[in-house]
Each structure stands twice: as C-alpha cells, then as structure tokens.
Write a structure and sequence with these properties.
The complex is a heterodimer of chains A (97) and B (168). With 97 residues, chain A is α/β, with parallel strands linked by helices. Chain A is 33% helix and 21% strand. Chain A has a four-stranded parallel β-sheet, with helices on one face. Chain B has a five-stranded mixed β-sheet. In chain B, strands 1-2 form a two-stranded antiparallel sheet. In chain B, a hairpin with a 2-residue loop joins strand 1 and strand 2 (8-9). Mean pLDDT of chain B is 92; it is low at 1-7. Classes of the chains: A alpha/beta (97), B alpha/beta (168). The A-B interface holds A 8-14, 16-21, 37, 55-58, 74, 76, 78-82, 84 and B 56, 59-60, 62, 64-67, 73, 75-78, 100-103, 115, 117, 120-121, 123-124, 127-128, 130-132, 134-136.
Chain lengths: 97, 168
C-alpha cells in the first residue's frame, strides 16, 4: 500500500481538517492508502512517502526536505472544496501509478 | 461545555465572549489582535500567541476562498496555547487576508475563526466538522446571517458538536 503524507505548516489545524476530507474522498472512490498527517518541519526526519498532499505551497522548492521522487500534490482544495475532484483525480493517478 | 461525542471528549471552548460581530477593522492584523485580546482575557492563550499567529500568517497565510465567501483560520503551534478554544469574528466589511493556496494573492474575508489548539492530534472531530462546514455554502451562509454574538456563538457550538441541522 502506498503512503500519503498530508502536510501543512504545523500539522495541528489545517491538516486535521484536510485529513477528514481526504479520507472520505478516498473511501468514496474505494482507494486505499496509509495516510499520515505531518508538519513541514517534521518532514526532514521521516522516510520519504510515495505522495505528499500539501495544504500550503512551498514544499516543491525542497526547502523543508529532499523530496526527489515524491509526487507532491497541492491540496488546499481539501479545505475549500473548490477544485477538490481534480485534486482527488491527481491523488488517484499517483496511487495507481 | 465538554460533551461526550463519538467516544471523544470535545475539549474546545466556544462562547459569546469569544465572539465579535459587526466591528469594523482596517486590516487582518487588527482582527487578529481583537480576537487575541478575547482569548487572552479568558486565559486560553499565552501572550506569545499573538506574535506567533501574526508571524505564521505572514509566512503561511490562512485565507481560504470557499464557494460561499472568503474565510480565514489564523492559528499557531500548541506551545502558545493554555486551553483549546475558538474565537470567531463575523465582519460587515471584508478584510484582506493572504491566500493559503497562493500567498501572493488576496482573499476578501468575511468570517475569521481563530483556532487555539492545545495539543497536536486533539479535537479531530471538531476539525472534521469545521472542514465539512467550509465546503458547505448552506452552513456558511447560515453563519454569516447571524445578527448577535449570542446567535453566532451558539451556531458555532452546535456546528462543532454535530448539532447543527439545516435544510439543504
């Protein structure tokens, strides 16, 4: 099973909200993954996941951790609902890749 | 105010005294400051919370453009929090926050929910219900129609305790 990190600034509020929605959306499409909520600053000390759904931008610049080979997907739509199906399409594609 | 729910205690305070309606603000800093004053007076947050929230807002802003209208969820790390609480402001005139999705963009914000969370991984059912609400224009429009601090705080309390029932 692939691992998805759900990342936000502190790993306290936004990612907790997004986790609920991502879990629900994955279940709707019958997709399975290990979902882990992390703060940006915790990334460096962890092993690389397959996919990162990031609630805030900034990860792609490699500022917080080396993410080579990791699929990074922008996921603010998990909080606003705007464009959420497109985000889940990207997650689905990465899970099936 | 803690209520048993889904096997999890909802240990997050909401109250009329943590609620602002109809006040006029020139900037996001002013709103954040006013909500901080309420939180701090109630002892929910430490003095350091204010600077931490403002700094975070500059680096990683919390404005969200939802289908209904712009909202913001300023917050900080748990080390600045004594006791979990939500302070809420409903604004007559929107205030510009920066967009979480793109910090170079402005979002005109009508509803500000300042979150003080004392422990990582806590209050998950509350966060889940807030997430559901942000994506539901019926709920957000119901909240922005509130006229008094009492109405708005009971609406928020009903929402996070799973008691808010609206015709969709």
């Amino acid at each position: 099973m692939k691992t998805i990190y759900l990342a936000c600034g502190s790993g306290v509020a936004s990612s907790g909200m997004a986790e609920h929605t991502l879990k629900k959306k994955l279940a709707e499409r019958n997709l399975k993954a290990n979902l882990v909520v992390v703060g940006f600053r915790d990334l460096a000390g962890r092993s690389k996941p397959d996919i990162i759904v990031s609630i805030a931008p900034g990860l792609e610049k490699g500022k917080f951790a080396d993410l080579e080979g990791v699929v990074v997907i922008q996921g603010v739509s998990l909080l606003t609902g705007m464009g959420i199906e497109k985000t889940i399409d990207e997650v689905e594609a990465a899970l099936k890749a | 105010m803690a209520t048993a729910l889904d096997g999890e205690q909802v240990r997050i305070e909401t109250s009329e005294f943590l609620t602002l309606i109809g006040r006029s603000f020139q900037s996001r800093q002013e709103v954040i400051n006013a909500l901080f004053e309420l939180m701090h007076k109630g002892g929910y947050v430490k003095t350091s919370y204010l600077a931490a929230v403002l700094e975070r807002e500059d680096k990683m802003p919390t404005g969200l453009q939802t289908q209904a209208y712009g909202i913001a969820i300023p917050h900080s790390d748990p080390e600045h929090v004594n006791c979990s609480a939500i302070a809420i402001a409903l604004l007559d005139q929107p205030v510009q926050f920066k967009n979480m999705a793109d910090p170079t963009e402005d979002v005109p914000v009508q509803l500000v929910l300042m979150l003080a969370i004392a422990e990582k991984g806590s209050v998950t059912s509350v966060l889940a219900r807030l997430a559901e609400a942000f994506m539901n224009p019926t709920i957000l429009n119901h909240m922005s129609a509130m006229k008094t601090t009492k109405q708005l705080s009971s609406c928020l309390s009903d929402l996070i305790h799973g008691r808010l029932i609206l015709d969709q």
